[in-house]
Amino acid sequence: MCVLSYDGTNFAGSQIQPKRRTVQGEVEKALQRIHKGQHIRIQASGRTDSGVHAKGQTFQFNTPYHILEKNWEKALNRLLPKDIYVHDVVKVPETFHVRYDAVEKEYRYYIWNTDEYDVFERNYSYFYPYALDIDLMKKACLYFVGEHDFTTFSSAKATAKGSKVRKLSKVTCDKRGNKIEVILRSNGFLYHMARIIVGT
Question: Do 120 and 186 belong together in one domain?
Protein backbone atom coordinates (compact mmCIF):
# COMPACT_ATOMS: atom_id res chain seq x y z
CA MET A 1 0.00 0.00 0.00
CA CYS A 2 1.24 3.50 -0.86
CA VAL A 3 0.38 6.81 0.78
CA LEU A 4 0.66 9.80 -1.52
CA SER A 5 -0.21 13.46 -1.97
CA TYR A 6 -0.97 15.28 -5.18
CA ASP A 7 -1.83 18.72 -6.45
CA GLY A 8 -4.93 18.11 -8.55
CA THR A 9 -4.75 21.37 -10.52
CA ASN A 10 -3.56 19.76 -13.75
CA PHE A 11 -5.35 16.42 -13.38
CA ALA A 12 -8.72 15.39 -14.82
CA GLY A 13 -9.30 13.54 -11.55
CA SER A 14 -7.65 10.60 -9.83
CA GLN A 15 -9.31 7.74 -11.73
CA ILE A 16 -8.00 6.64 -15.11
CA GLN A 17 -9.69 8.21 -18.16
CA PRO A 18 -8.84 7.73 -21.83
CA LYS A 19 -6.66 10.49 -23.32
CA ARG A 20 -6.77 12.54 -20.10
CA ARG A 21 -4.09 13.12 -17.48
CA THR A 22 -5.01 11.40 -14.22
CA VAL A 23 -3.26 10.47 -10.98
CA GLN A 24 -3.91 6.77 -11.56
CA GLY A 25 -2.52 7.06 -15.08
CA GLU A 26 0.72 8.65 -13.89
CA VAL A 27 1.22 6.14 -11.05
CA GLU A 28 0.55 3.18 -13.34
CA LYS A 29 2.97 4.63 -15.91
CA ALA A 30 5.70 4.77 -13.23
CA LEU A 31 4.93 1.22 -12.08
CA GLN A 32 5.06 0.00 -15.69
CA ARG A 33 8.57 1.41 -16.06
CA ILE A 34 9.67 -0.28 -12.82
CA HIS A 35 8.14 -3.56 -14.05
CA LYS A 36 9.92 -3.32 -17.45
CA GLY A 37 6.77 -2.74 -19.50
CA GLN A 38 4.35 -4.95 -17.58
CA HIS A 39 1.10 -3.09 -16.79
CA ILE A 40 0.35 -2.93 -13.06
CA ARG A 41 -3.18 -1.85 -12.10
CA ILE A 42 -3.62 0.14 -8.89
CA GLN A 43 -6.67 0.42 -6.64
CA ALA A 44 -7.28 3.64 -4.71
CA SER A 45 -9.15 4.09 -1.43
CA GLY A 46 -11.38 6.65 -3.14
CA ARG A 47 -11.74 8.94 -6.15
CA THR A 48 -11.21 12.65 -6.50
CA ASP A 49 -12.59 14.88 -9.24
CA SER A 50 -10.80 17.23 -11.58
CA GLY A 51 -8.85 19.91 -9.70
CA VAL A 52 -9.19 18.20 -6.30
CA HIS A 53 -6.02 17.80 -4.23
CA ALA A 54 -5.11 15.02 -1.81
CA LYS A 55 -2.94 14.58 1.28
CA GLY A 56 -2.65 11.02 2.49
CA GLN A 57 -4.51 9.31 -0.38
CA THR A 58 -3.84 5.56 -0.36
CA PHE A 59 -3.65 2.98 -3.13
CA GLN A 60 -2.50 -0.61 -3.45
CA PHE A 61 -1.06 -2.85 -6.14
CA ASN A 62 0.22 -6.40 -6.51
CA THR A 63 3.76 -7.03 -7.69
CA PRO A 64 6.00 -10.06 -8.23
CA TYR A 65 8.99 -7.97 -7.05
CA HIS A 66 10.46 -8.17 -3.56
CA ILE A 67 11.76 -4.67 -2.95
CA LEU A 68 12.22 -2.92 0.39
CA GLU A 69 9.43 -0.45 1.14
CA LYS A 70 11.84 2.52 1.30
CA ASN A 71 13.24 1.59 -2.12
CA TRP A 72 9.71 1.44 -3.60
CA GLU A 73 9.17 4.96 -2.27
CA LYS A 74 12.42 6.23 -3.82
CA ALA A 75 11.81 4.52 -7.18
CA LEU A 76 8.27 5.86 -7.51
CA ASN A 77 9.22 9.41 -6.53
CA ARG A 78 12.06 9.38 -9.06
CA LEU A 79 9.64 8.46 -11.87
CA LEU A 80 6.50 10.39 -10.87
CA PRO A 81 5.83 13.99 -11.97
CA LYS A 82 6.44 16.78 -9.45
CA ASP A 83 2.72 17.18 -8.64
CA ILE A 84 2.57 13.67 -7.10
CA TYR A 85 4.65 12.54 -4.11
CA VAL A 86 4.74 9.14 -2.36
CA HIS A 87 5.21 9.52 1.41
CA ASP A 88 5.17 5.90 2.47
CA VAL A 89 4.99 2.34 1.15
CA VAL A 90 3.77 -0.49 3.41
CA LYS A 91 3.37 -4.20 2.75
CA VAL A 92 -0.16 -5.37 3.56
CA PRO A 93 -1.75 -8.84 3.80
CA GLU A 94 -3.40 -10.24 0.66
CA THR A 95 -6.77 -10.03 2.44
CA PHE A 96 -6.43 -6.23 2.79
CA HIS A 97 -8.48 -3.99 0.50
CA VAL A 98 -7.56 -0.31 0.41
CA ARG A 99 -11.13 0.82 -0.24
CA TYR A 100 -13.25 -1.56 1.83
CA ASP A 101 -10.88 -1.61 4.82
CA ALA A 102 -10.69 2.19 5.03
CA VAL A 103 -11.94 3.28 8.46
CA GLU A 104 -12.65 6.94 7.65
CA LYS A 105 -12.17 9.50 4.91
CA GLU A 106 -11.79 13.22 5.40
CA TYR A 107 -12.53 16.11 3.06
CA ARG A 108 -11.39 19.66 3.66
CA TYR A 109 -12.93 22.52 1.72
CA TYR A 110 -11.56 26.04 1.73
CA ILE A 111 -13.55 29.19 0.98
CA TRP A 112 -11.67 32.44 0.28
CA ASN A 113 -14.18 34.85 1.83
CA THR A 114 -13.26 38.44 1.00
CA ASP A 115 -14.09 40.84 -1.81
CA GLU A 116 -10.47 40.80 -3.01
CA TYR A 117 -9.55 37.92 -5.31
CA ASP A 118 -6.22 36.20 -4.57
CA VAL A 119 -4.48 34.59 -7.57
CA PHE A 120 -2.42 32.39 -5.22
CA GLU A 121 -5.57 30.89 -3.68
CA ARG A 122 -7.41 30.22 -6.95
CA ASN A 123 -6.43 26.54 -7.19
CA TYR A 124 -6.89 25.81 -3.50
CA SER A 125 -9.91 27.80 -2.30
CA TYR A 126 -13.37 28.66 -3.59
CA PHE A 127 -13.66 32.43 -4.02
CA TYR A 128 -16.85 33.78 -2.42
CA PRO A 129 -16.84 37.61 -2.06
CA TYR A 130 -20.14 37.95 -0.12
CA ALA A 131 -20.79 38.11 3.62
CA LEU A 132 -21.15 34.77 5.41
CA ASP A 133 -22.39 34.21 8.98
CA ILE A 134 -19.77 31.84 10.38
CA ASP A 135 -21.74 31.27 13.62
CA LEU A 136 -24.80 30.07 11.70
CA MET A 137 -22.56 27.89 9.52
CA LYS A 138 -21.10 26.28 12.65
CA LYS A 139 -24.62 25.55 13.95
CA ALA A 140 -25.61 24.06 10.59
CA CYS A 141 -22.61 21.69 10.75
CA LEU A 142 -24.08 20.00 13.82
CA TYR A 143 -27.14 18.83 11.86
CA PHE A 144 -24.95 16.68 9.61
CA VAL A 145 -23.11 14.83 12.38
CA GLY A 146 -24.34 11.28 12.94
CA GLU A 147 -25.97 8.65 10.76
CA HIS A 148 -28.46 9.95 8.19
CA ASP A 149 -29.88 9.25 4.75
CA PHE A 150 -27.91 11.68 2.54
CA THR A 151 -29.89 11.12 -0.68
CA THR A 152 -30.68 14.86 -0.83
CA PHE A 153 -26.95 15.64 -0.68
CA SER A 154 -25.93 13.29 -3.48
CA SER A 155 -25.51 14.24 -7.13
CA ALA A 156 -28.40 13.43 -9.47
CA LYS A 157 -25.73 11.89 -11.74
CA ALA A 158 -24.79 9.30 -9.10
CA THR A 159 -24.96 5.72 -10.38
CA ALA A 160 -24.16 3.88 -7.13
CA LYS A 161 -26.85 1.45 -5.98
CA GLY A 162 -27.76 0.63 -2.41
CA SER A 163 -28.22 2.56 0.79
CA LYS A 164 -27.63 6.31 0.87
CA VAL A 165 -27.14 6.19 4.64
CA ARG A 166 -23.76 7.46 5.77
CA LYS A 167 -22.28 8.31 9.16
CA LEU A 168 -20.47 11.61 9.56
CA SER A 169 -18.27 11.64 12.67
CA LYS A 170 -17.08 15.22 12.22
CA VAL A 171 -18.35 18.33 10.47
CA THR A 172 -16.71 21.61 11.46
CA CYS A 173 -16.42 25.10 10.06
CA ASP A 174 -13.81 27.65 11.16
CA LYS A 175 -12.61 30.98 9.83
CA ARG A 176 -9.02 32.18 10.07
CA GLY A 177 -8.45 35.54 8.43
CA ASN A 178 -10.13 35.47 5.03
CA LYS A 179 -10.17 31.67 4.78
CA ILE A 180 -12.98 29.39 5.92
CA GLU A 181 -12.12 25.72 6.43
CA VAL A 182 -14.87 23.08 6.41
CA ILE A 183 -13.88 19.58 7.54
CA LEU A 184 -16.07 16.53 6.89
CA ARG A 185 -15.11 13.08 8.17
CA SER A 186 -17.11 9.95 7.39
CA ASN A 187 -17.01 6.18 6.88
CA GLY A 188 -17.95 6.92 3.26
CA PHE A 189 -19.28 9.64 0.97
CA LEU A 190 -21.83 9.63 -1.83
CA TYR A 191 -20.98 11.15 -5.21
CA HIS A 192 -20.44 14.92 -4.72
CA MET A 193 -21.89 14.64 -1.19
CA ALA A 194 -19.16 16.65 0.50
CA ARG A 195 -19.23 19.53 -1.99
CA ILE A 196 -23.07 19.69 -1.90
CA ILE A 197 -23.03 19.89 1.90
CA VAL A 198 -20.44 22.69 1.79
CA GLY A 199 -22.39 24.52 -0.91
CA THR A 200 -25.59 24.27 1.12
Answer: yes
